[in-house]
Protein backbone atom coordinates (compact mmCIF):
# COMPACT_ATOMS: atom_id res chain seq x y z
CA UNK A 1 0.00 0.00 0.00
CA UNK A 2 1.27 3.47 -0.93
CA UNK A 3 2.36 5.27 2.22
CA UNK A 4 3.04 8.67 0.63
CA UNK A 5 -0.46 9.87 -0.21
CA UNK A 6 -4.15 8.97 -0.17
CA UNK A 7 -6.98 9.85 -2.52
CA UNK A 8 -10.17 11.60 -1.43
CA UNK A 9 -13.06 11.70 -3.90
CA UNK A 10 -16.48 13.31 -3.49
CA UNK A 11 -19.40 11.67 -5.29
CA UNK A 12 -23.08 11.94 -6.08
CA UNK A 13 -24.55 9.52 -8.64
CA UNK A 14 -21.19 9.03 -10.36
CA UNK A 15 -21.53 5.49 -11.74
CA UNK A 16 -20.66 6.80 -15.20
CA UNK A 17 -17.50 8.55 -13.99
CA UNK A 18 -16.13 6.73 -10.95
CA UNK A 19 -14.90 3.53 -12.71
CA UNK A 20 -12.94 5.68 -15.15
CA UNK A 21 -11.22 7.61 -12.35
CA UNK A 22 -10.52 4.53 -10.22
CA UNK A 23 -8.92 2.75 -13.17
CA UNK A 24 -6.59 5.72 -13.76
CA UNK A 25 -5.24 5.62 -10.17
CA UNK A 26 -5.41 1.86 -9.57
CA UNK A 27 -1.71 1.19 -10.15
CA UNK A 28 -0.73 3.80 -7.53
CA UNK A 29 -2.17 1.48 -4.83
CA UNK A 30 -3.02 4.39 -2.52
CA UNK A 31 -5.59 4.47 0.30
CA UNK A 32 -8.96 5.53 -1.07
CA UNK A 33 -11.62 7.60 0.70
CA UNK A 34 -14.97 8.53 -0.84
CA UNK A 35 -17.43 11.07 0.55
CA UNK A 36 -20.90 10.58 -0.89
CA UNK A 37 -23.91 12.87 -0.58
CA UNK A 38 -26.74 10.41 -1.19
CA UNK A 39 -26.13 8.56 -4.44
CA UNK A 40 -29.05 6.45 -5.68
CA UNK A 41 -27.23 4.68 -8.51
CA UNK A 42 -24.35 2.15 -8.35
CA UNK A 43 -21.78 4.65 -7.06
CA UNK A 44 -21.48 3.15 -3.58
CA UNK A 45 -21.25 -0.41 -4.91
CA UNK A 46 -18.41 0.63 -7.21
CA UNK A 47 -16.65 2.37 -4.32
CA UNK A 48 -16.99 -0.66 -2.04
CA UNK A 49 -15.67 -2.99 -4.73
CA UNK A 50 -12.59 -0.74 -5.03
CA UNK A 51 -11.97 -1.06 -1.29
CA UNK A 52 -12.73 2.56 -0.47
CA UNK A 53 -13.63 3.83 2.97
CA UNK A 54 -16.97 5.60 2.57
CA UNK A 55 -18.64 8.37 4.54
CA UNK A 56 -21.89 10.22 3.93
CA UNK A 57 -22.54 13.94 4.27
CA UNK A 58 -25.54 15.95 3.07
CA UNK A 59 -24.47 18.34 0.33
CA UNK A 60 -24.52 22.09 1.05
CA UNK A 61 -21.82 23.23 -1.33
CA UNK A 62 -18.44 21.97 -2.54
CA UNK A 63 -16.28 23.89 -0.01
CA UNK A 64 -18.33 22.49 2.90
CA UNK A 65 -18.13 19.00 1.44
CA UNK A 66 -14.34 19.14 1.18
CA UNK A 67 -14.12 20.59 4.67
CA UNK A 68 -16.05 17.60 6.05
CA UNK A 69 -13.90 15.14 4.11
CA UNK A 70 -10.59 16.58 5.33
CA UNK A 71 -11.79 16.65 8.94
CA UNK A 72 -13.47 13.24 9.18
CA UNK A 73 -11.53 10.67 7.16
CA UNK A 74 -8.84 8.73 9.10
CA UNK A 75 -6.01 9.61 6.72
CA UNK A 76 -2.62 8.25 7.82
CA UNK A 77 -0.47 9.35 4.87
CA UNK A 78 1.40 12.69 4.91
CA UNK A 79 -0.32 13.84 1.70
CA UNK A 80 -3.82 13.67 0.21
CA UNK A 81 -4.93 14.13 -3.38
CA UNK A 82 -8.44 15.58 -3.67
CA UNK A 83 -10.28 14.75 -6.88
CA UNK A 84 -13.75 15.15 -8.33
CA UNK A 85 -15.36 12.00 -9.66
CA UNK A 86 -15.46 13.32 -13.24
CA UNK A 87 -11.67 13.71 -13.34
CA UNK A 88 -9.06 11.26 -14.62
CA UNK A 89 -5.34 11.03 -13.87
CA UNK A 90 -3.27 10.75 -17.06
CA UNK A 91 -0.49 8.13 -17.33
CA UNK A 92 2.13 10.91 -17.30
CA UNK A 93 0.81 12.32 -14.02
CA UNK A 94 0.43 8.83 -12.59
CA UNK A 95 4.08 8.08 -13.39
CA UNK A 96 5.18 11.22 -11.60
CA UNK A 97 3.05 10.38 -8.58
CA UNK A 98 4.50 6.87 -8.49
CA UNK A 99 7.93 8.43 -7.92
CA UNK A 100 6.69 10.93 -5.34
CA UNK A 101 8.33 10.86 -1.93
CA UNK A 102 7.47 13.02 1.07
CA UNK A 103 11.14 13.02 2.05
CA UNK A 104 11.99 14.83 -1.19
CA UNK A 105 9.27 17.47 -0.69
CA UNK A 106 9.62 18.49 2.95
CA UNK A 107 9.60 22.17 1.98
CA UNK A 108 6.20 21.93 0.26
CA UNK A 109 2.65 22.04 1.58
CA UNK A 110 0.83 21.83 -1.73
CA UNK A 111 1.17 20.88 -5.41
CA UNK A 112 -0.82 22.26 -8.33
CA UNK A 113 -1.87 19.87 -11.11
CA UNK A 114 -2.47 20.99 -14.70
CA UNK A 115 -6.06 20.39 -15.81
CA UNK A 116 -7.52 19.77 -19.24
CA UNK A 117 -11.23 20.56 -19.39
CA UNK A 118 -13.54 18.87 -21.92
CA UNK A 119 -17.02 19.88 -23.05
CA UNK A 120 -19.10 17.58 -25.26
CA UNK A 121 -15.96 15.61 -26.07
CA UNK A 122 -13.84 18.60 -27.08
CA UNK A 123 -10.79 19.81 -25.18
CA UNK A 124 -11.24 23.50 -24.41
CA UNK A 125 -7.73 24.70 -25.22
CA UNK A 126 -8.31 28.45 -25.30
CA UNK A 127 -10.33 31.13 -23.56
CA UNK A 128 -8.13 30.97 -20.45
CA UNK A 129 -8.77 27.25 -19.91
CA UNK A 130 -5.34 25.89 -20.76
CA UNK A 131 -3.04 25.76 -18.96
CA UNK A 132 -5.20 25.76 -15.84
CA UNK A 133 -3.68 24.85 -12.49
CA UNK A 134 -5.61 23.44 -9.52
CA UNK A 135 -4.25 22.83 -6.03
CA UNK A 136 -5.16 19.15 -5.76
CA UNK A 137 -2.37 17.65 -3.65
CA UNK A 138 -1.94 18.99 -0.13
CA UNK A 139 -0.09 18.06 3.04
CA UNK A 140 -2.68 16.44 5.28
CA UNK A 141 -3.35 18.36 8.47
CA UNK A 142 -2.09 21.63 7.00
CA UNK A 143 -4.29 22.06 3.95
CA UNK A 144 -7.94 23.00 4.35
CA UNK A 145 -11.02 23.96 2.35
CA UNK A 146 -11.79 27.65 1.83
CA UNK A 147 -15.21 28.12 3.45
CA UNK A 148 -15.27 31.78 2.41
CA UNK A 149 -16.22 30.51 -1.05
CA UNK A 150 -19.79 29.43 -1.69
CA UNK A 151 -19.30 27.55 -4.93
CA UNK A 152 -15.69 27.59 -6.16
CA UNK A 153 -14.07 24.87 -4.08
CA UNK A 154 -10.52 25.85 -3.29
CA UNK A 155 -7.95 24.15 -1.07
CA UNK A 156 -5.53 26.33 0.87
CA UNK A 157 -2.15 25.56 2.39
CA UNK A 158 -0.10 27.87 4.62
CA UNK A 159 3.31 27.05 3.19
CA UNK A 160 5.14 26.79 -0.10
CA UNK A 161 3.56 25.26 -3.21
CA UNK A 162 4.84 23.85 -6.49
CA UNK A 163 3.26 23.66 -9.94
CA UNK A 164 3.49 20.44 -11.95
CA UNK A 165 3.10 21.51 -15.57
CA UNK A 166 3.72 18.07 -17.08
CA UNK A 167 1.06 15.43 -16.62
CA UNK A 168 -2.61 16.31 -16.41
CA UNK A 169 -5.89 15.59 -14.78
CA UNK A 170 -8.59 15.34 -17.42
CA UNK A 171 -11.99 16.71 -16.45
CA UNK A 172 -15.04 15.75 -18.49
CA UNK A 173 -18.53 15.49 -17.08
CA UNK A 174 -20.24 13.08 -19.46
CA UNK A 175 -23.65 13.99 -18.04
CA UNK A 176 -23.12 17.50 -19.41
CA UNK A 177 -23.33 16.10 -22.95
CA UNK A 178 -27.05 16.63 -22.36
CA UNK A 179 -27.30 20.41 -22.34
CA UNK A 180 -30.36 20.41 -20.06
CA UNK A 181 -28.18 18.85 -17.32
CA UNK A 182 -25.53 21.57 -17.77
CA UNK A 183 -28.15 24.33 -17.59
CA UNK A 184 -29.89 22.83 -14.56
CA UNK A 185 -26.58 22.40 -12.71
CA UNK A 186 -25.35 25.91 -13.45
CA UNK A 187 -28.72 27.34 -12.54
CA UNK A 188 -28.19 25.85 -9.05
CA UNK A 189 -24.60 27.13 -9.00
CA UNK A 190 -25.77 30.62 -9.93
CA UNK A 191 -27.88 30.72 -6.74
CA UNK A 192 -24.76 30.03 -4.66
CA UNK A 193 -22.58 32.56 -6.48
CA UNK A 194 -25.23 35.31 -6.39
CA UNK A 195 -25.78 34.83 -2.66
CA UNK A 196 -22.02 34.86 -2.05
CA UNK A 197 -21.49 38.09 -3.97
CA UNK A 198 -24.30 39.85 -2.12
CA UNK A 199 -22.78 38.74 1.17
CA UNK A 200 -19.45 40.20 0.03
CA UNK A 201 -21.21 43.50 -0.74
CA UNK A 202 -22.55 43.46 2.81
CA UNK A 203 -19.04 42.66 4.10
CA UNK A 204 -20.26 39.34 5.49
CA UNK A 205 -17.53 37.45 3.62
CA UNK A 206 -13.87 38.13 2.97
CA UNK A 207 -11.22 36.53 0.79
CA UNK A 208 -9.05 33.93 2.49
CA UNK A 209 -6.47 33.91 -0.28
CA UNK A 210 -4.37 37.07 -0.57
CA UNK A 211 -5.07 38.73 -3.96
CA UNK A 212 -1.88 39.01 -5.99
CA UNK A 213 -1.76 39.08 -9.79
CA UNK A 214 1.80 37.75 -9.98
CA UNK A 215 1.37 35.21 -7.16
CA UNK A 216 0.23 31.59 -7.19
CA UNK A 217 -2.64 30.51 -9.48
CA UNK A 218 -5.11 30.90 -6.60
CA UNK A 219 -3.71 34.32 -5.60
CA UNK A 220 -4.10 35.47 -9.18
CA UNK A 221 -7.69 34.17 -9.21
CA UNK A 222 -8.39 36.09 -6.00
CA UNK A 223 -7.04 39.28 -7.62
CA UNK A 224 -9.18 38.75 -10.73
CA UNK A 225 -12.25 38.17 -8.56
CA UNK A 226 -11.70 41.52 -6.86
CA UNK A 227 -11.50 43.12 -10.29
CA UNK A 228 -14.68 41.30 -11.36
CA UNK A 229 -16.68 42.45 -8.33
CA UNK A 230 -15.92 46.08 -9.17
CA UNK A 231 -17.23 45.82 -12.73
CA UNK A 232 -20.82 46.95 -13.39
CA UNK A 233 -23.30 44.11 -13.49
CA UNK A 234 -24.91 43.18 -16.80
CA UNK A 235 -21.96 44.75 -18.63
CA UNK A 236 -19.34 42.41 -17.22
CA UNK A 237 -20.77 39.17 -18.73
CA UNK A 238 -20.54 40.74 -22.18
CA UNK A 239 -17.02 42.05 -21.55
CA UNK A 240 -15.91 38.69 -20.16
CA UNK A 241 -17.34 36.78 -23.13
CA UNK A 242 -15.62 39.10 -25.61
CA UNK A 243 -12.38 38.83 -23.64
CA UNK A 244 -12.52 35.03 -23.58
CA UNK A 245 -13.53 34.73 -27.21
CA UNK A 246 -11.09 37.17 -28.82
CA UNK A 247 -8.32 38.17 -26.41
CA UNK A 248 -7.89 34.64 -25.05
CA UNK A 249 -8.60 33.15 -28.50
CA UNK A 250 -11.62 31.10 -27.43
CA UNK A 251 -12.91 31.44 -30.98
CA UNK A 252 -10.22 28.93 -31.99
CA UNK A 253 -11.99 26.23 -29.97
CA UNK A 254 -14.46 25.78 -32.81
CA UNK A 255 -18.25 25.58 -32.70
CA UNK A 256 -18.44 23.48 -29.53
CA UNK A 257 -15.86 25.68 -27.82
CA UNK A 258 -17.68 28.89 -28.70
CA UNK A 259 -20.90 27.40 -27.31
CA UNK A 260 -19.06 26.54 -24.09
CA UNK A 261 -17.54 30.02 -23.74
CA UNK A 262 -20.92 31.62 -24.41
CA UNK A 263 -22.67 29.48 -21.80
CA UNK A 264 -19.95 29.67 -19.17
CA UNK A 265 -18.74 33.26 -19.65
CA UNK A 266 -21.94 35.03 -20.69
CA UNK A 267 -25.12 33.06 -19.92
CA UNK A 268 -24.02 31.81 -16.49
CA UNK A 269 -22.63 35.21 -15.43
CA UNK A 270 -25.70 37.05 -16.69
CA UNK A 271 -28.03 34.77 -14.69
CA UNK A 272 -25.89 35.48 -11.62
CA UNK A 273 -26.26 39.24 -12.12
CA UNK A 274 -30.03 38.92 -12.49
CA UNK A 275 -30.24 36.88 -9.29
CA UNK A 276 -28.04 39.37 -7.44
CA UNK A 277 -30.52 42.11 -8.24
CA UNK A 278 -33.39 39.90 -7.10
CA UNK A 279 -31.65 39.34 -3.76
CA UNK A 280 -30.80 43.03 -3.39
CA UNK A 281 -34.41 44.01 -4.05
CA UNK A 282 -35.53 41.71 -1.25
CA UNK A 283 -32.84 42.98 1.15
CA UNK A 284 -33.10 46.74 0.62
CA UNK A 285 -33.46 47.55 4.37
CA UNK A 286 -30.25 45.65 5.15
CA UNK A 287 -28.43 47.41 2.32
CA UNK A 288 -29.48 50.81 3.63
CA UNK A 289 -28.09 49.94 7.04
CA UNK A 290 -24.70 49.20 5.52
CA UNK A 291 -24.68 52.45 3.55
CA UNK A 292 -24.30 50.60 0.24
CA UNK A 293 -25.78 52.29 -2.83
CA UNK A 294 -26.16 49.89 -5.73
CA UNK A 295 -27.77 50.84 -9.04
CA UNK A 296 -26.25 48.73 -11.81
CA UNK A 297 -29.35 48.64 -14.02
CA UNK A 298 -29.50 52.43 -14.26
CA UNK A 299 -25.81 52.54 -15.15
CA UNK A 300 -26.20 49.87 -17.84
CA UNK A 301 -29.20 51.57 -19.45
CA UNK A 302 -27.50 54.98 -19.39
CA UNK A 303 -24.30 53.52 -20.81
CA UNK A 304 -26.09 51.71 -23.65
CA UNK A 305 -28.18 54.76 -24.55
CA UNK A 306 -25.16 57.08 -24.57
CA UNK A 307 -23.01 54.62 -26.49
CA UNK A 308 -25.70 54.13 -29.16
CA UNK A 309 -26.25 57.91 -29.37
CA UNK A 310 -22.53 58.71 -29.78
CA UNK A 311 -21.86 55.82 -32.15
CA UNK A 312 -24.76 56.48 -34.54
CA UNK A 313 -24.40 60.24 -34.36
CA UNK A 314 -20.85 59.86 -35.70
CA UNK A 315 -22.17 57.68 -38.53
CA UNK A 316 -24.90 60.24 -39.23
CA UNK A 317 -22.38 63.11 -39.44
CA UNK A 318 -20.12 61.02 -41.66
CA UNK A 319 -23.06 60.28 -43.95
CA UNK A 320 -24.22 63.86 -44.41
CA UNK A 321 -20.67 65.23 -44.91
CA UNK A 322 -19.81 62.74 -47.66
CA UNK A 323 -20.99 63.44 -51.22
CA UNK A 324 -24.31 61.72 -51.84
CA UNK A 325 -28.08 62.09 -51.61
CA UNK A 326 -28.06 63.43 -48.04
CA UNK A 327 -25.03 65.69 -48.35
CA UNK A 328 -25.11 68.94 -46.33
CA UNK A 329 -22.67 71.53 -47.62
CA UNK A 330 -23.02 73.74 -44.54
CA UNK A 331 -22.18 70.97 -42.06
CA UNK A 332 -19.42 69.65 -44.34
CA UNK A 333 -17.81 73.09 -44.48
CA UNK A 334 -18.37 74.36 -40.94
CA UNK A 335 -19.19 71.47 -38.52
CA UNK A 336 -17.31 68.51 -39.93
CA UNK A 337 -15.43 67.38 -36.83
CA UNK A 338 -14.70 64.01 -38.50
CA UNK A 339 -12.65 65.80 -41.17
CA UNK A 340 -10.89 67.86 -38.50
CA UNK A 341 -9.99 64.72 -36.58
CA UNK A 342 -8.68 62.97 -39.69
CA UNK A 343 -6.50 65.96 -40.59
CA UNK A 344 -5.20 66.18 -37.01
CA UNK A 345 -4.23 62.51 -37.08
CA UNK A 346 -2.52 62.81 -40.46
CA UNK A 347 -0.60 65.95 -39.56
CA UNK A 348 0.32 64.52 -36.17
CA UNK A 349 1.69 61.42 -37.90
CA UNK A 350 3.72 63.59 -40.30
CA UNK A 351 5.14 65.54 -37.35
CA UNK A 352 6.21 62.37 -35.53
CA UNK A 353 7.75 60.91 -38.67
CA UNK A 354 9.64 64.15 -39.29
CA UNK A 355 11.04 64.04 -35.74
CA UNK A 356 12.53 60.65 -36.56
CA UNK A 357 14.07 61.89 -39.80
CA UNK A 358 11.56 60.50 -42.32
CA UNK A 359 10.13 62.52 -45.17
CA UNK A 360 6.32 62.38 -45.15
CA UNK A 361 3.55 64.28 -46.88
CA UNK A 362 -0.22 64.13 -46.61
CA UNK A 363 -3.44 65.24 -48.21
CA UNK A 364 -6.90 64.95 -46.67
CA UNK A 365 -6.95 61.14 -46.69
CA UNK A 366 -3.47 59.72 -47.36
CA UNK A 367 -0.12 59.56 -45.62
CA UNK A 368 2.93 59.02 -47.82
CA UNK A 369 6.37 58.24 -46.44
CA UNK A 370 9.24 58.46 -48.91
CA UNK A 371 10.46 54.98 -49.77
CA UNK A 372 7.80 53.26 -47.68
CA UNK A 373 4.45 53.59 -49.40
CA UNK A 374 1.01 55.05 -48.67
CA UNK A 375 -1.64 54.44 -46.03
CA UNK A 376 -5.23 55.70 -46.34
CA UNK A 377 -7.26 56.88 -43.36
CA UNK A 378 -10.84 55.70 -43.76
CA UNK A 379 -13.64 56.21 -41.23
CA UNK A 380 -12.80 53.01 -39.31
CA UNK A 381 -9.25 54.31 -38.70
CA UNK A 382 -10.35 57.29 -36.64
CA UNK A 383 -11.12 55.53 -33.37
CA UNK A 384 -14.60 57.03 -33.02
CA UNK A 385 -16.06 53.72 -31.84
CA UNK A 386 -13.46 53.52 -29.06
CA UNK A 387 -14.13 57.13 -28.08
CA UNK A 388 -17.89 56.49 -28.04
CA UNK A 389 -17.48 53.45 -25.75
CA UNK A 390 -15.06 55.25 -23.41
CA UNK A 391 -17.09 58.47 -23.18
CA UNK A 392 -20.39 56.66 -22.66
CA UNK A 393 -18.96 54.59 -19.79
CA UNK A 394 -17.44 57.61 -18.03
CA UNK A 395 -20.55 59.78 -18.39
CA UNK A 396 -22.83 56.96 -17.19
CA UNK A 397 -20.75 56.23 -14.11
CA UNK A 398 -21.84 58.05 -10.91
CA UNK A 399 -18.98 60.49 -10.30
CA UNK A 400 -18.48 64.25 -10.19
CA UNK A 401 -18.98 65.99 -13.53
CA UNK A 402 -15.64 67.78 -13.37
CA UNK A 403 -13.83 64.48 -12.83
CA UNK A 404 -15.71 62.95 -15.76
CA UNK A 405 -14.92 65.78 -18.19
CA UNK A 406 -11.22 65.86 -17.31
CA UNK A 407 -10.97 62.08 -17.63
CA UNK A 408 -12.81 62.05 -20.97
CA UNK A 409 -10.55 64.75 -22.44
CA UNK A 410 -7.41 62.96 -21.25
CA UNK A 411 -8.77 59.63 -22.45
CA UNK A 412 -9.58 60.90 -25.96
CA UNK A 413 -6.15 62.49 -26.24
CA UNK A 414 -4.56 59.23 -25.13
CA UNK A 415 -6.59 57.15 -27.61
CA UNK A 416 -5.68 59.40 -30.52
CA UNK A 417 -2.02 59.62 -29.46
CA UNK A 418 -1.86 55.83 -29.68
CA UNK A 419 -3.74 56.04 -32.98
CA UNK A 420 -1.02 58.32 -34.36
CA UNK A 421 1.58 55.83 -33.17
CA UNK A 422 -0.31 53.15 -35.07
CA UNK A 423 -0.22 55.17 -38.30
CA UNK A 424 3.49 55.84 -37.89
CA UNK A 425 4.23 52.14 -37.41
CA UNK A 426 1.91 51.16 -40.27
CA UNK A 427 3.55 53.61 -42.65
CA UNK A 428 7.00 52.24 -41.79
CA UNK A 429 6.49 48.49 -41.32
CA UNK A 430 3.10 47.22 -42.45
CA UNK A 431 3.48 45.66 -45.91
CA UNK A 432 0.37 46.26 -47.95
CA UNK A 433 0.80 43.20 -50.14
CA UNK A 434 1.54 40.74 -47.32
CA UNK A 435 -1.14 38.22 -46.37
CA UNK A 436 -2.52 38.92 -42.88
CA UNK A 437 -4.72 36.64 -40.78
CA UNK A 438 -5.99 39.64 -38.78
CA UNK A 439 -6.14 43.19 -40.15
CA UNK A 440 -4.52 46.03 -38.24
CA UNK A 441 -7.90 47.56 -37.31
CA UNK A 442 -8.79 44.41 -35.33
CA UNK A 443 -5.39 44.25 -33.64
CA UNK A 444 -5.52 47.92 -32.67
CA UNK A 445 -9.09 47.71 -31.34
CA UNK A 446 -8.32 44.61 -29.25
CA UNK A 447 -5.30 46.29 -27.67
CA UNK A 448 -7.18 49.52 -27.08
CA UNK A 449 -10.19 47.86 -25.44
CA UNK A 450 -7.83 46.11 -23.01
CA UNK A 451 -6.10 49.42 -22.20
CA UNK A 452 -9.45 51.19 -21.84
CA UNK A 453 -10.75 48.46 -19.51
CA UNK A 454 -7.66 48.69 -17.30
CA UNK A 455 -7.82 52.50 -17.26
CA UNK A 456 -11.52 52.51 -16.39
CA UNK A 457 -10.90 50.02 -13.59
CA UNK A 458 -8.39 52.29 -11.87
CA UNK A 459 -10.53 55.39 -12.48
CA UNK A 460 -13.59 53.70 -10.96
CA UNK A 461 -11.52 52.48 -8.02
CA UNK A 462 -10.14 56.00 -7.49
CA UNK A 463 -13.61 57.59 -7.60
CA UNK A 464 -15.05 54.98 -5.25
CA UNK A 465 -12.26 55.74 -2.78
CA UNK A 466 -13.01 59.46 -2.99
CA UNK A 467 -16.74 58.85 -2.57
CA UNK A 468 -16.21 56.63 0.46
CA UNK A 469 -13.87 59.24 1.94
CA UNK A 470 -16.48 61.98 1.48
CA UNK A 471 -19.14 59.82 3.13
CA UNK A 472 -16.83 59.10 6.05
CA UNK A 473 -16.27 62.81 6.56
TrEMBL record:
Membrane topology of the entry: Multi-pass membrane protein
InterPro entries tied to this protein: Exo/Archaeosortase_dom, Glyco_trans_2-like, Nucleotide-diphossugar_trans
Transmembrane parts of this sequence: 297-320, 340-362, 374-399, 405-430, 442-460
Record's keyword annotation contains Membrane: yes
Primary site of residence: membrane
Cellular compartment(s): Cell membrane
SUPFAM superfamilies reported in the protein's UniProt record: Nucleotide-diphospho-sugar transferases
CDD domains attached to this UniProt entry: Beta4Glucosyltransferase (cd02511)
Domain Glycosyltransferase 2-like span(s) in chain numbering: 6-126
GO biological process, one term: proteolysis
Taxonomic superkingdom: Bacteria
Gene3D superfamilies from the UniProt entry: Spore Coat Polysaccharide Biosynthesis Protein SpsA, Chain A (3.90.550.10)
Gene Ontology terms for molecular function: peptidase activity
Listed GO CC annotations: plasma membrane
Keywords: Cell membrane, Hydrolase, Membrane, Protease, Transmembrane, Transmembrane helix
Family classification: Belongs to the glycosyltransferase 2 family. WaaE/KdtX subfamily.
Database matches in NCBIfam families: exo_archaeo, exosort_XrtY
PANTHER family linked: GLYCOSYLTRANSFERASE, POLY-BETA-1,6-N-ACETYL-D-GLUCOSAMINE SYNTHASE
Designated name of the protein: Glycosyltransferase 2-like domain-containing protein
Native species: Mucilaginibacter xinganensis
Amino acid sequence: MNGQFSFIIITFNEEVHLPRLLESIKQLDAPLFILDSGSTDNTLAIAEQAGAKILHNNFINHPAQWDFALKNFPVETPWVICLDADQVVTPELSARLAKFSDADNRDLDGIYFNRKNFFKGRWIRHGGYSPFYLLKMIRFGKGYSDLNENMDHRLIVPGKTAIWKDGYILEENLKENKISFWIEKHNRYSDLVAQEEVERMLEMRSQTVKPHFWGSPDERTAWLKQFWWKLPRYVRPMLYFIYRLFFQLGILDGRIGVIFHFLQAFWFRLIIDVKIDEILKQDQPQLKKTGKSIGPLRFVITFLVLFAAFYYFNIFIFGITAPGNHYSAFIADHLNYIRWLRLALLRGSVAVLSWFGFTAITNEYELLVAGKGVIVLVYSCLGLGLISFFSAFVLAYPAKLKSKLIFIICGILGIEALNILRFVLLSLFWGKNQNRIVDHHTIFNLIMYVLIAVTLYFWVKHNDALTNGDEAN
